[in-house]
């Protein structure tokens, strides 16, 4: 607990728990965090559109099991597939930011 008393920001906490930016452990954490964010955004957008996973999959040309994996942050996703799910399946546009 003493090691944590000097932590004052969220970034310091993440660095303490997962390492500095660019390290293998931190990269794995960041990848998981991004997948979680995408999964939550997909789930929320699907619910707002009043679609089931099966309906969304049909519209996007994929399988229900794939939508389920994505919503549970369990699968890898190609950018082209993500765009197709949001644009064709949900009628939404995707904007990307590279840092």
TrEMBL record:
Provide the protein name: Helix-turn-helix transcriptional regulator
Keyword tRNA processing in annotation: no
Domain named HTH cro/C1-type: which ranges?
Answer: 42-85
Domain of life assignment: Bacteria
Recorded source organism is Flagellimonas algicola
> Which classification does the entry list for the species?
Bacteria, Pseudomonadati, Bacteroidota, Flavobacteriia, Flavobacteriales
Per UniProt, the keywords (alphabetical) are: DNA-binding
């Amino acid at each position: 607990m003493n090691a944590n008393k000097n932590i004052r920001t969220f970034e310091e906490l993440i660095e303490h728990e997962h390492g500095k930016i660019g390290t293998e452990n931190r990269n794995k954490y960041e990848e998981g965090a991004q997948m979680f964010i995408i999964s939550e955004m997909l789930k929320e957008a699907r619910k707002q559109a009043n679609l089931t996973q099966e309906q969304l999959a049909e519209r996007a040309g994929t399988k229900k099991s794939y939508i389920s994996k994505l919503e549970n942050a369990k699968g890898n996703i190609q950018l082209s597939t993500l765009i197709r799910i949001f644009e064709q399946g949900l009628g939404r546009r995707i904007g990307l930011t590279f840092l």
